[in-house]
Amino acid sequence: MKKLVSFVRIFVGVLFIISGFVKLNDPVGFSFKLQEYFAPDVLNIEVMSPFALGLAIILVIVELVLGVALIIGYYKKLTMWLLLLMIVFFTFLTFYSAYFNKVTDCGCFGDALPLTPWQSFTKDVILLVMILFLFFNLKHIKPFFTNFMRSILIFVTFIGCLGFAYYVLMHLPAIDFRAYKVGANISEGMTIPEGAPEAVFDYHWKFNINGEEKIITTQGEYPSSEGEFLGVETEVVSKGYVPPIHDFTIEKDGESYTEDYLNMPNLIVIIAYDLSKTEWNGWPAVKELTNEALKKGYTVIGLTSSGDEAVLNLTNKQNINFDFYFTDATTLKTIVRSNPGILKLNKGTIIQKKHWNDIDEIELEVLPSAKPALNLELKQRLDSIARYDQLYRPLLQETDEAKRIALAKEMGVPKEDYTGNLWKKQRMLDTSNLKVVKAILDNHGYPGKSLVGEPTNLIALEVIEHNPVQIDQYIDLFKKAAAQGEIPTTKVAVLEDKYLMMQDKEQLYGSQAQITAENGFFIWPIKDAETVNQRRKEAGFKRTIEEYVADLMGKDAKYKALKISEIKRL
């Protein structure tokens, strides 16, 4: 009996130490798990959510200290009572989670060993039996060392736990068990291997056959039955292979940029899962790092789950020089346990991952694409102008009424302001932006990519485009900037075509079209139309005028060269 008690005692103690250490290595992650339990659809005690991190640290330190106390026999009666109370509580919690399918992973061993709800419950039941066995055989538990030495060991364990918890909170987990650890490739983590097991489902089809409800189960195919179909329920038989990373996306304005950025070399990613909870002390250091990264040739983006208003608030307060994209909050919490946190990526591979406290450890070399002349103050001014340039345009230019209503609600715009009032507000903003941009163009020349980077180099041109009476004044400056590679030639070509059309003159590149009620779409007259494709190629257009017309008007549409005199009749 003594040997069995000794074995169980050591086994349970070591298990508690391992479980406690794994969670202490990542207390922020364990606090997220506690918040899941506190949620309304689980235990419905959201009042505890603000205290989740503190509670997580206390629980894991107690768990680890109790494991040590059990092994060395420190205050064995008190230790056994505390162990029993703890395992009873967690057994109830895991049963509730498993039975009602509320939390899919208890977090018992953090990310090191994910367990399903029923596995977690089974583990806790076994531990409960073991602890009850020890509880009723307390007399066979013999302490190790002297009482003073046991007290010293417990004190050292407690202080060591506190110190370790403080270290990982101020930095990052000492051991990273997640799929986003340094050296991992995110694209590869999302890949399903060839031949991997697929999910299997049972489909329970309900039919009314001669007044009786009958259920026919198949694995997908619709069953042959003469009865009236009532409905179908789906049951998961086996989940199949789930890749380590299955929820990573980078989105902006409804478009996905995931593949673009995961294929990009030399990428710095700033992660702030919730800007309302971000640590503001970290942002000056983030700004310094990202400014340096931009000058050295890196691409810099931010990822957050917060909305545009929170992003704009942060941008204005911190004067940051990069754009934010949307990613799910849970994914961002999983990637890095810091708000903000910093990733250095190379074609999807995580090269470095740091807490904002360790931002000076991010290594930045000077790249061939470095822009030492980058004017970051000017870039920030232009980025700010861009936000106001597009403040109401998405709503004003949306033709789908349903999308327009949804967008208006999202922007907080009343229905009566959809047209006239909004256009007035946007024109006022355009006038204000124009004054600033004209001052920049007159004092700096064109702010191209070598001066403000991409895509900021397009902003001055877009502001002039929205104030087209100014095109004539700056078109030569735009052409010069395009010739120097500071802005795309195609952008200048489109702007020049637009200006010529406004002057009732023939365009050069065929980029402008018009529409009338009777004649539909037509391409505005082109000067020397027989050589337009050569000019389009030289300007960087990928399609011929014939291909452009087919894309614009339908595959059967043919390009028809018109003259100004014909346009006037139309």
Describe the protein in words:
The relative contact order is 0.05. α4 (76-99) packs antiparallel against α5. This protein is elongated. It has 570 residues and is an alpha+beta fold. β6 (267-271), α9 (283-295) and β7 (299-304) form a beta-alpha-beta unit. The longest helix is centred in the C-terminal third of the chain and has 25 residues, at 420-444. It contains 22 helices and 12 strands.
Q: How big a fraction of the residues is strand? A: 5-15%
Q: Provide the helix percentage.
A: 40-55%
Poorly predicted runs are none
Instruction: Give the integer mean of the pLDDT values.
Output: 88
What is the overall shape? elongated
Counting DSSP E segments of at least 2 residues, the number of strands comes to 12
Name the structural class.
alpha+beta
Strand order of the largest sheet: 8-7-6-9-10
Q: What is the alpha-carbon Rg in Å?
A: 32 Å
Distance between the termini: 103 Å
Main sheet makeup:
5 strands, mixed
The total of helices stands at 22
Helix-strand layout with pairing:
Layout: H1 2-24, H2 27-38, H3 52-72, H4 76-99, H5 117-136, H6 147-170, H7 186-189, E1 200-209, E2 212-218, E3 228-238, E4 251-252, E5 255-256, H8 258-262, E6 267-271, H9 283-295, E7 299-304, H10 308-318, E8 323-326, H11 329-335, E9 341-346, E10 349-355, H12 376-389, H13 393-397, H14 401-411, H15 420-444, H16 449-452, H17 459-465, H18 471-483, H19 489-502, E11 513-516, E12 520-523, H20 532-539, H21 545-553, H22 564-569
Helix pairs in contact: 1-3, 1-5, 2-3, 3-4, 3-6, 4-5, 12-15, 12-17, 18-19
